[in-house]
Amino acid sequence: MTGSMLNVMLKYVCISATVGVALYATLIWLLTTASFQAHVVYLHKIQMTWFRDLDVPEMFGFLYNQVTPFSIKVSDGEALYAWHVLPLELYREHEASLLDEPSGFVSDITSSLAFKLLRDDPEARLVLHFHGAAGTVGSGYRTPNYRALSAGQPRKIHVLTFDYRGFGRSKGEPSESSMILDALAVVNWATNVASIPPSRILIFGQSLGTAVSIAISEHFALQSPPLLFAGTVLVAPFVDVMSLMATYRVAGTIPLVSPLVRFPRLFNYLGTFVRDKWSSKDRIARYIRANEASGNKYRLTLIHAEDDWDISWHHTPKLFWHAVNATVPAGIAYDELEAKKDERKKYLGAAGSFVEWRTENGVIREEILKYGLHDVIMGYPIITLAAMRIFTAADSSFR
Questions:
Q1: pTM above 0.70, yes or no
Q2: Fewer CB within 10 Å, N side or C side of the chain?
């Protein structure tokens, strides 16, 4: 290779490196703007249900009128697009009557037979489902998730799922405060419109939805008097947005902001521009402390798969520690808790492991699967068992 050819190659390498650094610097700068942050964190413009009509749930594998699309009003005037999913055995029992009703979006959910089957059954349970970033109520592995949630008692467990504002057919723009407002509206609908007591309601969140779930659980636990649900299940949770940024890799391989972690001052400076913190670690601690102080019974389950490419499973042990630490007046060091977990943990081979921390008032359960990825896990039997475990703990007669 001649000296001139080497010089040309070096020139192109330098140009490519300069362009790469410039593009990365532009990305970091864009991340300091609120609008770009919202698109990166929430991915709400990515529908993932193109060419399918959400008002026709049969296109997503449901039976005729098994799902009722409707809207829920929010206190600030926005409207959320929602699905009420009937459990399969209950559907079978009332199939003839359900087939006589028109399907599709209803302007008045209270007039539908499906709603009456929920409201008028004193044994009915309701899962309030908070989905993750991107997509809609019908996207990806969310529909198998609804089936898994009700599979343990297919006559009694209904699912209410919805799109946050800015997602799918729900208008508006998402933010931490507005999405919590959306969650409040959903709880209000469940308790005041459908008349389901909180003790028969399970809060379920996956990915981004875990942050919304623990925020709403904390909100009602801090009320006077507190409002307590049957329990809360968090699948693939994260500690907070900054911790997620520090570990997130696109497709599990391409780091986005994590290279800046090597420069703490720069990374922390970037953090000052983050609008929506979603600090689940702080909220989970306040939720536990509130219940421990009031003596209220609570049940919290955290589930994660080790092969999760989107959110590292290491977030879950950290959240588990923040929750457990809130039960110990003098606190407990992370390493000390890990040692105690090793003594109590049940290893299940290729199925993973689980451990429970019990107090006089509550149970905090950590389940780590070997396999399940970020979304596939939502249709697994572990989801069915998690829902049933909480419902039966809240009411031993529920079978």
A1: yes
A2: N
User: What are the pLDDT digits (tens) for 131-188?
Assistant: 999 999 999 999 999 999 999 999 999 999 999 999 999 999 999 999 999 999 999 9
Q: How many helices (H) and strands (E) does the chain have?
A: 14, 12
135 and 254 assigned to the same domain: no
**In angstroms, rounded to a whole number, what is the distance separating the alpha carbons of residues 182 and 179?**
5
What residue spans of 61-105 are helical by DSSP H? 88-93, 95-99
| Cα–Cα distance list, 192 to 86, 110, 130, 186, 202 (Å) | 19, 12, 19, 10, 16
| Dist CA 300 CA 222 (whole Å) | 16
Kind of pairing between the strands at 125-130 and 67-73: unpaired
Dihedral (CA of 183, 185, 191, 196) sign? negative
Indicate the SS3 state at residue 10: helix
Do 71 and 21 reside in the same domain of the chain? Answer: no
3-state secondary structure of 334: helix
Residue 219 falls inside a structural domain: yes
169 and 231 share one domain: yes
Contacts of 272 by beta carbon, 8 Å cutoff, 6+ apart = none
Domain that residue 9 falls in = 3-41
Residues 209 and 91 in one domain: yes
Is 94 buried (19+), middle (13-18) or exposed (0-12) by CB count in 10 A?
middle
Provide the number of structural domains found in the chain.
3
Calpha distance 27→38 (Å, rounded)? 14
Which regions of 6-94 does DSSP assign to beta strands (E)? 67-73, 79-85
User: Which pair of structure tokens corresponds to residue 268?
Assistant: 């922390």
Q: Is 331 left (phi over 0), alpha (psi -120 to 50) or beta?
A: left
